[in-house]
Structure formats: C-alpha cells, structure tokens
Write a structure and sequence with these properties.
single chain, alpha/beta, Nucleotidyltransferase, domain 5, 5 helices, 43% helix
C-alpha cells in the first residue's frame, strides 16, 4: 500500500509518497498554500492519483508531547482533509524534519544556492520515512516456522 505524507507549512505543503510496498519514501511535489480547504482538496486528489491508502500529516509537538501552534494548525488541516477523502488520515510527529532535510542537502554537497531553496518535499520524505520505519520495526513477528 502506498502512503502519502504531507509536511504542512504556512506557505507551501511538501508531499512525499511511498513505494507500493510501503517501505521507501520518495519526494513527490510541493503545493503552494492557498487555503485549508483548497489545499486539502489538492492533497486528496494527489492521494487518489497515486493510489495511496493512507495519508500522514506532520504535526509539531513541544517537549511535553503537546501540539505547538503549528501543530494545532496541522490538526485543523488534517480534520479538513478528512472531509475531502475517505482515506484514513493520521498525524505524525514531524520533529526536526526540516533540520534533517537541510542536513541531508549539506551531506549531498549541494551548493549554497541549491540549499537556499525550499525543503518541503524533502522534509515530507523524512517524515514519511520515519513513519514507515516505525511500521517496519513494530510489525508482529511471523508465526510461520
């Protein structure tokens, strides 16, 4: 099953999609923020086009595990997204995804000019890979001999 991830932002929303096995995340695209309802409709359309079975929305949490201001915005966005699709929509802690995306660009020896661009789709990819890794490592052990 493919999984679509959204890294919501106030200017752009980064999207990532998993491979059909649900093990590897890849950057998909960036959507410019228009309004919560139009953004949700565009993401629901992307999920349908790419035959996703689940949508993961990044949510920032504070040190106590409570949603930050941006995290509460992500929660409202996820609620709106649920009105636009029948797919399950889950929130996932996006802690440090943008910083990790910036570090990944530096590790890839991206020029300073290329590093200055947006990191939204890469941040969504890191978010999704975190979600996929958790699923992979928490699957019950096989009962077959």
């Amino acid at each position: 099953m493919r999984i679509l991830a959204v890294d919501p932002g106030s200017k752009r929303l980064g999207l990532a999609i998993s491979d059909p096995t649900g093990t590897i995340a890849n950057p998909l695209t960036v959507i410019l923020h228009i309004s919560r309802l139009l953004d949700a409709a565009a993401i629901a359309e992307q999920a349908a086009v790419h035959e996703a079975g689940l949508i993961v929305v990044g949510q920032s949490l504070d040190e106590q595990g409570q949603p930050t201001f941006e995290g509460r915005r992500a929660d409202r966005f996820a609620s709106t997204l649920r009105t636009q699709t029948a797919l399950p929509v889950v929130l996932w802690d996006e802690a440090f995804t943008t910083q990790d995306a910036r570090a990944a660009r530096i590790a890839l020896d991206a020029s300073r000019k290329r590093r200055a661009g947006h990191l939204d789709d890469l941040a969504a990819t890191i978010l999704l890979q975190s979600y996929l890794d958790t699923l992979l490592f928490h699957k019950p052990a096989s009962l077959s001999p």
